[in-house]
Design goal:
three-stranded antiparallel beta sheet, alpha+beta
Amino acid sequence: MGQFVVSPTTHPTDCGRFRASFSVQRSQCNGSPGRVFRLSKTFASREGARLLAVTQGWLQASMTHPPEC
């Protein structure tokens, strides 16, 4: 199993476009809060937003020392 669980999601905007977000949580920590990342770019399709969320989540989880926000 991997060390992290990445959960991508999309959200509709008021103008009919979609935003992406994802959360990253350690897979072995029961009940510990993860980090939520909300991305500012909008997309015409839900699938485009989901693809960005999946990609960014994978990159964040695979970094040895991810940057602090």
